[in-house]
Amino acid sequence: MEIGLSIVVIITSVILVMLVLLHRAKGGGLSTLFGGGVSSSLGGSSVVEKNLDRLTIAVGSVWIIAIIGLGLLLKS
Amino acid sequence: MLTAFTRAFRTPDLRKKLLFTFGIVILFRIGSVMPAPGVSTRSVNTCLSTASTGASNVYSLINLFSGGALLQLSIFALGIMPYITSSIILQLLVVVIPRLEQLKKEGSAGEQKITQYTRYLTIALGILQATGIVALARSGRLFPGCTAAVIPDTSLFRIATVVITMTAGVGVIMWLGELITARGIGNGMSLLIFTSIAARLPSQGSAILQVAGGVVFTLVCLLGLAIVVFVIFVEQSQRRIPVQYAKRLIGRRMYGGTSTYLPIKVNQAGIIPVIFASSLLQLPQLVGQVWNNQGFQDFESRYLSRGDHPLYLAAYGLLIIFFTYFYVAITFNPTEVSDNMKKYGGFIPGIRPGRPTAEYLDHVLSRITLPGSLFLGVITVLPLALLNLTKDQPFPFAGTSVLIMVGVGLETVKQIESQLMLRNYEGFLR
Question: Which spans are transmembrane here (chain A) (predicted)?
């Protein structure tokens, strides 16, 4: 149980990092950090981005739940 | 003021953005207090209470930027520090590596590529720092003088789980920040720093109250207030260079002929130099941990690890001044500005367009940056020096944190205001 949850956490962590890196790099960087410059032209997010968002949120929730579960398991 | 707030919430568009931002911030805070799996919360708490005041010097700045999450070893323990560090590194590399410079010149597509590199580097740094911190915690050096085992089960598998979780946390924080930038209000990364620092303020304040008593506490509060006023004053001050636009007749319409001004802020660089400098000053400590050289470690712990040594203060101040000039040089290009002005038929009265204008702008900029950089240096170093007179204050980054909070706050309010301006004219700031 414990090891299974740990493996879930590890796998979801790796997937989560990949998904975040797959997102289009928007904003960020130091040029816009701390109110540097003009905010980038936004434009609607594409369908790909939207699906990526949903996927990230889903994986993120699994990640959080697994972490909480593992934490409770290890505590008891 | 309050009516402006209610008006901000009555605007559906703005309300959605504000609530979105709040939601993300709440998520961020929840993650910052949630312990990573395998970390014993009980022993962390006992260690925190025994070694409450600035025991772990090495990571105190990172701890500040992560809102105290670091020492709790939560899943968001590393906070946004890896992202900041990697941004700094890439920003410096742009000057050094020709290929990156070329990318930067390409415009937004190239910028996006650089941002993507920054994100990869962030994850790499996240792995590194997570490993470092977990290794410290495992060997018990994270809390010197505390015997309770922070991570009870030190099998490789368990340790790896913690490290990977923290790394994923870094990625998630990066994503949250980008979400705020894209769909919320203000810049995500700076807002997250803001929340982390703000979350630390109450505990820092109560620590001062307990350690030093009421008089010092009031003094610190007054000093903080004075800094806030001063910071706002300087942040808002700018020099206005008059620009006259020639009249142009296109078809039957008349364009231009207006006289405007080019605002040059006294503190063009914002607070980035402070963050650069303080991150750079952390480096020797990190090196000292890895490199087991007694001489270097002695030197480092004597001169560079605490804020009370004159050498440290001097290095801090000088670095801030240097980075202010560096950052202004990166962000504001006089030649480009003068070329743009020439293209649209604008000129500064009394100065010929083209190269003389660029030279004039450069001259004004380098002169106005001096007080700006001095201001940054004084406001970060002076509180450090003053507080050292009263000995051992747990308020190590007073200037930095106040500067960041005020800067981010001002910027965010300005953004809300410009959104509000779209609908009605009165905003927060008058």
Answer: 6-22, 54-74
Please write down the HEC assignment for all residues of B81-109.
Answer: HHHHHHHHHHHHHHHHCHHHHHHHHCCHH
The string of pLDDT tens digits covering residues B40-86 is: 777 777 776 665 444 445 556 666 666 677 777 888 888 887 887 78
Q: Which residues pair with B253 in a beta bridge?
A: B250
CA distances from B89 to B100, B121, B122, B360 (A): 12, 9, 10, 31
Report domain extents, chain A. 1-74
Q: H/E element holding B260?
A: strand B259-265
CB contact under 8 A, A33 and B38: no
Rounded alpha-carbon distances, angstroms, from residue B320 to B88, B201, B372, B380, B383: 14, 24, 10, 9, 15
**B190 → closest Cβ in A16, A24, A34:** A34
CATH topology of domain B1-210: Preprotein translocase SecY subunit (1.10.3370)
- State the CB neighbour count (10 A cutoff) for residue B240: 10
Closest CA to A26 of B176, B90, B182: B182
Query: Does the reported pTM lie above 0.90?
Result: no
Q: What is the pLDDT of residue A36?
A: 38
Q: Which residues of B touch A29 (CB under 8 A)?
A: 87, 111, 114-115, 118
CA distance B416 to B409: 11
- Look up tokens 């605007």; give the residue: B11
The structural domains of chain B, with segments of one domain joined by +, span 1-210, 213-397
CA B322, CA B334: separation in Å to the nearest integer? Answer: 19
Of B75, B116, B270, the CB nearest to A34: B270
The answer regarding whether domain B213-397 maps to CATH 3.40.50.620 reads no
What is the signed CA dihedral for B407, B410, B415, B416, rounded to 10 degrees?
140
Q: Is the ipTM of this complex over 0.85?
A: no
pLDDT digits (tens, 9 = 90+) for B406-424: 888 888 888 887 777 776 6
Which helix (H) or strand (E) element contains residue B253?
strand B253-256
CA A46 → CA A15, A24, B307, distances in Å?
21, 10, 49
As a residue count, chain A comes to: 76
